Structure to design on (210 residues):
């Protein structure tokens, strides 16, 4: 067993054995997987401080930054705005999801989600931002979610689902248009949300066979 694998094992076991000192010492390990496991163990022990998380969000490894954001989603601290500018798109995607898990994210975070949903080059980030806006349900995100109905199919599906969080005449109008979307899943979501029961006419059915 190499040293990195051994240290990862130690970091994981520290969370089960209650060894705070060991978990804390492994936060500076050279291997990002070890640092990430140490973060998880400290959280498991209830001894992950805001200061440690703040440092980990700025870690040199995207793997560690991503893990730190995942942990922040379940904690009272707000997701730092700067993480949404991360150079690694998977970190940005995770940050969008984490913001959607918060009860009252700041207006700055909501506005940044809108920007990502509108213009991020990575589809996964746009999709995660749209989903987060739907989870939050702030009126500030409605126009962005409506605009996402013109994006890629996966994002249109997310946008259609997200519309359920908003109360506005524009929502029903958009869902009715989505009944004719090229993607069948978008059409199905729109139909479910509108509770539409289409009546098939004899013309649609065609002549009966003799």
């Amino acid at each position: 067993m190499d040293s990195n694998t051994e240290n990862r094992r130690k970091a994981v076991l520290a969370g089960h054995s209650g060894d705070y000192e060991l978990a804390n010492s492994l936060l500076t390990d050279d291997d990002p997987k070890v640092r990430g496991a140490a973060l998880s163990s400290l959280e498991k022990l209830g001894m992950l401080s805001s200061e440690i998380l703040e440092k980990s969000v700025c870690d040199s490894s995207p793997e560690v930054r991503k893990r730190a954001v995942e942990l922040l989603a379940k904690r009272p601290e707000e997701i730092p705005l700067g993480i949404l500018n991360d150079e690694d798109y998977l970190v940005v995607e995770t940050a969008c999801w984490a913001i959607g898990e918060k009860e009252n994210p700041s207006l700055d975070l909501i506005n940044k989600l809108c920007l990502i949903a509108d213009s991020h080059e990575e589809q996964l980030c746009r999709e995660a931002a749209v989903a987060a806006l739907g989870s939050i349900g702030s009126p500030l995100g409605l126009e962005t979610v409506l605009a996402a109905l013109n994006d890629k199919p996966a994002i249109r599906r997310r946008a259609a689902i997200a519309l359920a969080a908003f109360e506005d005449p524009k929502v029903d109008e958009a869902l009715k248009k989505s009944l004719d979307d090229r993607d069948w899943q978008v059409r199905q979501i729109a139909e479910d949300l509108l509770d539409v029961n289409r009546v098939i006419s004899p013309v649609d059915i065609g002549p009966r066979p003799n």
Summary: Residues 196-210 have pLDDT under 50 and may be disordered. The domain at 110-210 is CATH 1.25.10.10 (Leucine-rich Repeat Variant). The longest helix spans residues 3-17.
